[in-house]
Amino acid sequence: MQQEIDGLKVEFEQEIANVDSEKSLEALRVRYLGRKGILAGLFKQLGAASKEDKPLLGKSIHGLQKLVQETLDAKNAEIALSGDELTPAGFDPSLPGRLPWRGNRHVLAAALDDVIAIFHGMGFSVADGPEVELDFYNFQSLNFPDDHPSRDLQDTFYVDNDVLLRTHTSPVQVRYMENNPPPVRIIVPGRVYRNEAIDASHAAEFHQMEGLYVDKSVTLGDLKTTLSHFAREYFGPAAKLRFRPHFFPFTEPSAEADMTCFICGGKGCRVCGNTGWIEILGAGMVHPNVFSSAGYNPEEVTGFAFGFGIERIAMLKYGIEDIRLFLENDTRFLSQF
Ligand code: DAH
User: Which of 17, 104, 114, 225 lies at a 20 to 30 A Cα distance from 87?
Assistant: First the structure.
């Protein structure tokens, strides 16, 4: 009888391997565990066995019963997992999962990070200063004459006679030099305010990046190489700068820099007004009066400074046509970057 039990075990294992549906599984269960099944038959035979054989045979039959039961259960779970019968209607397991909602960096913050990284690479570190500023730092210390038009209420938001919202990041030049001896190599990203009529290219609050480099023999050549390197890194290797003489009270000589038009590559188009060039920044050699107001000796040091609008360079790089988009928080705009 033991042989018969061993044979049944092998047989069962072959049969279960061929089962591939709930139906054939159920048939196998009935054949082995049913009321008139194989195991029931074995227990019946056990009654007729001799007293000595009974305990061992009984154990073998129970072992086979347990094996059959457990194997059937495992197979049942396997079939249920893969079976169509348990899939709820309308559920398509082959569809891709839903992506979780993800925010992204504001295009302006990203542009700022890119610009800062480029100047970091040239050894500049970041400094900052207050947005509510004294007239002294915003104008007087930067060599603005008392009757300079930018001091007009039309252009500047005044808090009172001496206090205003800074109109540029240049006041941080003087604040920084007051507290740090030369050499200086800083950039100053920050928010500035102008009393502007708002349109596609003018905002009442926007961002600038100031740069200041002061040491013993800094030249205009250093200024040109630094800014040309920045333009190539930010706008691509084809970007070229040209410098035009200009006037700023706090630099002498002063220049404005134009970049080859990113739309037409310099041929002339609507965006660049057919000139092939687009103005991107102001710059110059730091005026001796500015060094004096900051407590530096203009006989001992020279330096260059520059300033540009962050919105403006991001608009040029990405072809954004309206400065108001930066503040509207329309996700259709923001998610493109
Ligand atoms: N502060 C100027 C502005 O707001 C930009 C500027 C021009 C900054 C020349 C400078 C500079 O440091 O040297 O338009």
Answer: 17
